[in-house]
Amino acid sequence: MATNKKTNNTNHDFKYYTKKFWRFFIYGIGAIVLFFLFASWGLFGSMPSFEDLENPDSNLATEVISSDGVVIGKYFQTNRSQLKYSDLPKNLVDALVATEDERFYEHSGIDGRGTLRAVLSLGTNGGASTLTQQLAKQLFHGEGSKFLPFRIVQKAKEWIIAIRLERQYTKNEILAMYCNVYDFGNYAVGVSSAAHTYFSKTPKELTIDESAILVGMFKNSGLYNPVRNPVGVKNRRNVVLAQMEKAKMISSAEKEKLQALPITLQFKLESHREGTATYFREYLRDYMKKWAETNKKPDGSDYDIYKDGLKIHTTIDSRMQLHAEEAVAAHMANLQEEFFIQSKTNKNAPFVNISEKETNRILMQAMKASNRWYVMQSMDKSEDEIIESFNKKTKMTVFTWKGEKDTIMTPMDSIRYYKHFLQAGLMAMEPQTGNIKAWVGGINYKYFQYDHVAQGARQVGSTFKPFVYATAIEQLNMSPCDSIIDAPFTIPVGRHHVTETWTPRNSNNTYLGMVTLKKALASSINTVSAKLIDKVGPEAVIKLTHKLGVKTDIPAQPSIALGAVDITVEEMVAAYSTFANQGVYNKPQFLSRIEDKSGVVIYEPIPESHDVLNKDIAFAVVKLLEGVVEGGSGSRLRSEYGGSGDNRWTGYPYKLTNPIAGKTGTTQNQSDGWFMGMVPNLVTGVWVGCEDRSARFKSITYGQGATAALPVWGYFMKLCYQDPNLKVSNKPFDRPANLSIKVDCYQPRKVKDTTAVIQDTDEFEF
User: Fold this and answer.
1) Where is the Glycosyl transferase family domain positioned along the sequence (predicted)?
2) Structure confidence at residue 35 as a pLDDT band (50, 70, 90)
């Protein structure tokens, strides 16, 4: 009996524990199910909604896109660009799958085999995160907490999100999203930005070894940064290549060949202050800030150009922009060399003929505008202490045309040094559309932020004279072939609001007698311009100039005929474009359209235009301007024989034989040099001068528009004509049918060396 009792007790104990086990098991499974349910319901923290999964907040950089489809810049807090799967190179996709998730195309967000392996090995044999899980982590909770309970909750949420992503997106879309959100360091987020930053390529252009480098960085972009750790990166790249061989994506021979390659970078940090079209991009940024104030999202919220991933399609042509920047850099470096040579004999360089008081005023103004002054003022330093600091030598990096240079000088000396630099502004525009094709606002945006295209208005000199001639042709029914006497001329007190007798003179005090209007403009004769404005009145000239798009408040004085008016490069180009466009003014246009991150057009500008002159008058002005290039100060565009200062005519001889209309301009004391050049489908304006008008060349040889500005235009046009894809016209300007104005004047026999005979006759100017 005792034995049976013992057996019964044993049977009871087994059933008891079996029942307890199953109860524990069921409760445990139930708890796990509830845990995942609670996590999915957001009880352990918010979970992404259906809409969030459809439109994850990817903090995309806004892209500035040229008319030929090139991304010329970005606005960002995080430099991230959106890619579609079709934009990814196959070698990068292969490398990513082989290295990060070999069963990516087989699982549904969670790799069961990998998870089991990780659990059994306690993580010592690698983790089990799939690409989808990694994407979930990147999009919705980042690296997460290191505290184990919180980490468990986050892991559960990561699994749930991964499953939802797999249901919501295709495998290809998940791959593209993952490649768009990873931070590769150096402000490069996403494969597109990384390819541009590290290799100066688009993703499609990446080679297998370059793709392997980027895929290797997915493990740890801080550790495997190719700029800082080339040895570690090479080892990691070779691991990726080995994985590709293991997955039979490349052969053993290919693997060995690729593993032997060195790490080769074309590293270029993307920033707001560097790259192409920097001045234009800054102008566009200011425009977009104002645009965002009046253009709202469908839900009424504001657009943010730094994170909404807008695509701003501009009229700028990236090829033409690069040609313009090359032309400005080449000529300004050449001309600057001459400026420094001449400054060596000037004790008050770069200033010419100004008093010590005026010099100190300029330098003090520059000090107070500097960042050093602002910083020290914020530190409650007195003005005397701040000024004293400007006279203490310190280490600094300065701009030179041969690259940045480390040196030691006082901040005051650096102010004088930078005042030496000649600045430039260039804008090119299609007259028929108003589309701006190139915009160079200065010589180097990092060091000189002032934009000399739209921001800086400067005195235009003789480039204003065509407005006077156009008014005379319209009001007086004159033609380019009509004659007028070049002789001393005076406008008395009281006439045209003159308060003192005004007697303009030609700069060399010589007069040619009877000349045609075409000859007068080609030689930029001051007395003829004065006589014409006397006949039509300053008000008529001002009215026409304003119709041509110039917004400057112009005084009703006859002296404006010689160009004593401040106008921007942008306005001058638009005004001249009216002549090339048969008398129709088109407002300069820099935007084609703006799209949201999904490619939906959210804004298209409405072009603005109006009639200014009839076709015949506009064509007559064009023929006048052609005379400047045929036998005036623009003739060096044709000549091959050189002349005074020809070593500073960058790109000379230009050998341009096609029809060109243009006008040089030089202001008093050579403070400003201009050239406005036109062919039928491109009008380009160039201004050159120092920031301060008292900093200038002493002589007209180098300070005149034909030496300072015209070479930029000639160099730029040579580059454009060498690029047939740009389709810049070399044809004649369209001649109106039944032209009522005589434009074909008698041409005397040309002297062979026109440049030698006519020293840039822009010196006749005011």
Assistant:
1) 70-245
2) low
